[in-house]
Each structure stands twice: as C-alpha cells, then as structure tokens.
Amino acid sequence: MAKPPKQNEEHAFKKIQRDIEVENWSNPLFFYGREQYLIRWATEAVVERFVSPSMLPLDYNKADGGTMTLDALKNLCETLPMGSERRVVVVEDLPAVSGKASKWFSETDEASLADYIKILPDTVLLIFTSEETDKRKKLFKAIQANGGCYEFGKLEQGQLRGFIEKRLRQGGKTAKANVIDHLIALSGYYDRESDYTMFRLENDLKKAVAHSMDKELTVEDMCVAVSGNSETYVFDLIDALTEGNKGDAFRHLHELLSSGENEYKLLALICSQFETIVMAGELLAEHKRFEEIRALLGLHEFRVRKAVRYAESRSLKRLRSTLLQAYEIDKTIKSGSMDARLALELLIAEA
Prior knowledge:
The protein is α/β, with parallel strands linked by helices. Helix content is 59%, strand content 9%.
C-alpha cells in the first residue's frame, strides 16, 4: 500500500492554482502522474485562463503524442492565436517525455525539441501531459530547466476528504468523518499497486448519492457504491476471522471466487495481508504503540487497526504458523496437489 503524500509536500494542484492566481508562468509545462483527473482539471484551468471561449476551436489544440512529429508540433506552436491571449497546445503522451519508443519521434527529434523549447514563441503555451515519465530523459530535464514540471500524484488524506465532502455537497448530501474514512479505506485508494483513482472515486460518489434516500450517507451507502478492489475484500474476509465469524469469512471467499477472482491472485493477497498482520504482531510484542506501528508499516490507519486487532486476538506463534501454512498452501496449489478452492477453504478453517 502506498503512503499518502506528506502534508508538508505541496501537491501539484495547489501549486498550479497559485501560479494561475499570481500569473507565474513558465513555458512549456509538463503535467504528469497517476491522477489524470487532476491533470485534466489543471489543463482546463490553464486553457480557461488564456483562451477566449469564442476562440476555443481555433486557439486550443490537443494532439496525440503517439503520432506527433517534430515538424507538426513546431507548426502548432508557431501558429498565431486568432483572438486569445495565447494559443494553448496540449500534447498527450509524447514518447519523448513518457519514456516510450516511437517511430514518429527519434532521439534526434527529442534533442531538437529540447533545444526548441528554449525559444518557444510568446504567443503559445505548450503543455505536455503523461501518466508516466522518465526523468532521465533529456527532454524532461530541458522542460524542468526552462519550463515547469507538475507531478499529480495521490492526494494527501485531508485533501482527499475535502474533495469527497465537496462532491457530496454538490449532490446535496453529507457524511460523517468516520463514514468518509471508511469510504477511503474501502476504495483502496492508498493501497500499493491500486488502480483506484479520482475518476473512479467521483463515479462511486455519484452512485452513493443516487443510492441514498437520505441527506446523510451511511457506511452501507458507501459499500453499495464503491467498486474498490480485491485487496479491500480480502480484508473483509480477514476482518470476519478477527471477530471469530468463520461463516462470514467463508461467504466472502465464495463471493470473491464467484465474481471470477483468480485463486492464485486471491491467495497471494491473503498471504500479503497475513504478512502485514505478522509484522503488526511482532511490533506489538516489542510494546510499540499504535502510532509507532502505523508509522513503521506505512499503511492507512484503517488497515493498521484491522491488522493490529487481528494480531491482538492471536499469539505471535499462531500468526506465524498461519502465514507459513498460507505459503505451504500456495505451493500445494501451484504443484497441483490440491484443488485451489479446497485449499483456500482449508486455510480459512484453520486460521
């Protein structure tokens, strides 16, 4: 699970907001990172600042970097705006900044573009966008030196809560802090390797608003709406075990399998969660406080509380034994010695 950004690290969306307000412009701009939702918002904010609404079809160009040539890019940049303060040219996923190969854009083109951006016309604002980037690339370094780079990563928890609260207000709804925290944990937003982004969060919030007949949303509303990911539901399974309810644990297992979840992936997730629980148990044995455990594990508070609660209900010896058993069952399944479903059921029965 990835850690939320530290609160003392200013997020790119705050920086671009401020730069727009104080007219602090660099050229070109590079918006990159996993949060394409925020990249789209930042791009629209810049376009709104420089391009007259009536001139939008003429003075705003969005191009696919995958098929972009150097000459075509220069032509776009050197075309004068028709009625706006500047022409805005947005190039999405140019291989030279994303680190991918392209038959349209050679290393020589990249070197030429790195030189060209030093002399961009004042009549254009050039924006590159990409989810991925290679900071070792010459073009990235040139943009960093001559323009502005903004990395749109995951929001800090307070910022994410603010986003959720704002979207709920727009839908005429409210939710208590603990319900919002449950939503964040349920979504898996901060989980390692999670593909849950703000686009999905916004869609899930719309579903939660539509589902609820009351003004205040409940945990149930969130559970119905949030699509989440497999790792989240594995924790539901383990949570049932924590409370000594193996019936619910078996139900969660069968729901996951019925939904088409791969047995190997599911067992890998269970092993991963038990590894976290064992680490929590070891830290408890060292008399670490909850906040220390949370800091050392680097996980969301909701996840840590579940891991600690399970670790407190079992001896460290038993926790380690369960993890070793999970490893053994993983080997058994992969060797074909036991049916995968039966092996998973056995693991839950003896956990």
